[in-house]
Amino acid sequence: MSAVNRRDLGLFILRVGTGAVLAAHGTQKLFGWFGGGGLTGTSKAMEAMGFRPGRQSALAAGLGEAGGGTLLMLGLATPAAGAVSAGAMAGAVSVHAPAGFFNQSGGFEYPAFLGFTAAAIGVAGAGRYSLDHATRHHFDQPWTLAAAFVASALAAAAVVGKRAIDQAEAGDDADDAGAGNGDTG
Hints:
This protein has 185 residues and is an all-alpha fold. It is built from seven helices and no strands. The radius of gyration is 19 Å and the shape is elongated.
């Protein structure tokens, strides 16, 4: 019997802790668990934050967090789990970025930390104490790592970019409406 590998044990603890936090946030969005708004409440919130259509955005965010977090906890398809979780957190970072970095001011510190941690686990791999190891890394291949992170980055860029464009257009429309009413600023 081999001794416990500290590095793998550390990855296990980090993976389970990070995955549990992400999964809990995702289930708030999807099912209203842990005081969340469920899909209906989250859809409205997503619309208010500028993610349109709100229901699809809420579903994508919830599935990214709950699904990615659950896979991280299990250590299954770890590159995809880390990439999906990091991509979901990129959307949250875009919402909190105007408030600055620190969490106490409503900044992006917390979602950025979750995203970077999930990405790091996805790149490092799940370690020995995981379903990836038990399945002989069937879902944890070098090509999976590259494909998952490229796809997640492209999807996150598209979603965050669309939100930014929509917000800029909404701001222009508000400026135009104010100018049409004799408002000079």
